[in-house]
Amino acid sequence: MELKDELIKNFHEQFAQNQNHHQKLFFQILSVIVTVTVGYSYVYTMGGKLPNPDLKPSIFLLSLALIISTIVLGLSLVLLSNMAYGFRRDQFVNNRIREKANLIHNSNSKDDIFPKSYDPAWSFIRKNKAYKKRLKKLKFPLRYTYGIWVWILMRLSWMPNFHNSLFFMLSLIQILLLISYVCNPFDDIILFDLGLGINWAFIVTICTWLILTGLVLRSQSVFYRKLKELYS
């Protein structure tokens, strides 16, 4: 019995330490954002040129910069989802410890030291029901416009607010990088022109971006389903 109590105590202490780790995570993600934006911005402002005035802007270098940036941001997003899942999993176990100690979910809520919102499973189910209710109320065309945004919020609602905000920030940067690539202002870099035929560098870059983004979304969806099974 003493060993069991000691393990529970150690787990609870470790969980508290993991929460403090989030402050370090912010600076790590911030360093990734700075590295990616500075590197891509350098290549972008150079027009995809090497530091040689005789060379013309190169779509290859610009495409390579976008792909590398997408890979770095994608890995950060996957890592962020993995850490968010680990946090929710440990939070779920920690809540069961509190429940065993009669600190939450008592028959009389006044006896609860921790409110119900501290239960990740309860909060997850409550949020999902609220989002599904909002989706059902939406009618055409809002259902296929604003409804998509509500669906995205629902699929990301399982993440802690800190991880959720970082996930949105990194995703937005990834989309903005793609827009800057497609809408580049350089006259010498023509990505698509029906009269000049297909630019394969552009096609490969867009396909690569879509594949990498799809892998990130798939990993996020996997963690969502795993957490849903854990809470059910």
- Poorly predicted spans: none
The major sheet is characterized as: none
The number of helical runs is: 6
Average pLDDT score: 80
| Overall 3D form | elongated
Q: How many β-strands, per DSSP?
A: 0
Structural class, by secondary structure, is mainly alpha
Q: What is the C-alpha radius of gyration, as a whole number of Å?
A: 23 Å
Strand content: under 5%
Give the fraction of residues assigned to helices: over 70%
End-to-end Cα distance? 29 Å
Give a short synopsis of this structure.
The protein has 232 residues and is an all-alpha fold.
Walk me through what this model shows:
The protein has 232 residues and is mainly α. The protein has six helices and no strands. It has helices spanning 2-45, 59-100, 120-137, 146-156, 161-182, 200-231. Helix 1 packs parallel to helix 5, helix 2 (59-100) runs parallel beside helix 6 and helix 3 (120-137) packs antiparallel against helix 4 (146-156). It is elongated, with a radius of gyration of 23 Å. It starts with a helix and ends with a helix. The mean pLDDT is 80.
Write out key terms for the chains shown:
single chain; 232 residues; mainly alpha; 6 helices; 73% helix; 0% strand
Topology:
Elements: H1 2-45, H2 59-100, H3 120-137, H4 146-156, H5 161-182, H6 200-231
Helix pairs in contact: 1-2, 1-5, 2-5, 2-6, 3-4
